[in-house]
Structure prediction request, 308 residues.
Amino acid sequence: MAKPQRSDPAEAIDIRPATVADLAGVIALDEEVTGLVKPEYWHDMFARYGARGTGSGCFLVAGNPARIDGFIVGEVRAWEFGSPPSGWVFAVQVRARLRVLGLGSRLFEAVCARFRAAGIDRVRTMVARDNTVIHSFFRSQGMTAGPFIELEMRLE
Amino acid sequence: MKFQKATEFALYAVLELAADPARQLTAVEIADKYGISAHHLAKVLRDLGRAGLVDAVRGVGGGYRFAGNAKRLTLMDVIRLFEDVGTDSSDTAPRTTGEDIAEGLRFVVAELDAQTSATLRSISLSTMLKLVARHPWATEARPARRAARRAR
Prediction:
């Protein structure tokens, strides 16, 4: 007997480089997830890592301009903190109802594929300690603690 | 961080059973695999059963089966059944003449605890099983070992 076909809504969603037409959808999704509206930040991210960016970064979206269901932003950085070139993921978001269906994993794999193609063999990120959802996501992708410790201090 | 034996045994048992949720294993089978006390493990499995993480199958050929959601349950969910986690002793400690130093030390220890807690909360059983399958320690530990050798 033939196995029933899976029909996860996330499987059919296209992943591609962001265009300027996607920005409104990215800003809306970010607002939906974080509760914060920050259009200037996303326009700046697109300028740096979008289609016409510097080339070392990538800004990928899942969905179409009418409805962005996820996005990921990353960049290759070299010699910061003495580290050889490595890929950094700055942001990843997936629409809440599409989580745990593999869309975030596909976005992450897509950005990692671009890092590999650029000759990079290591990917890094930073997560808020109390953000268990995003921390768990990166762990589920196989990420573990790296060799750096983040430190900070209040400036009086 | 050093876990109590019960915690360690619970993590072995839950991960072993979660690796194949359809499989039943007895306390003796799990204990033999990990070289631990079957008697102690049996008590731990009863606690895990009461918490709903495993099902006990009685009778001949019985044993235990995983009963949770491996993608949702985290290492911390298992650990907190056996360890006193999340309690902050800094507020209840008596004030002494060395208060500043004592508070400073508590501040540093709290930093370590927060890091440990965040790590344990972020690793689901499913993620842990994937990590075990990948053996990252085989490759990641090499530079650390080399650095340690160089430092000697």
About this structure: The mean pLDDT of chain A is 90. The beta strands of chain A are 15-17, 57-64, 67-77, 86-94, 123-125. The first strand of chain A starts at residue 15 and ends at 17. The radius of gyration of chain A is 16 Å.
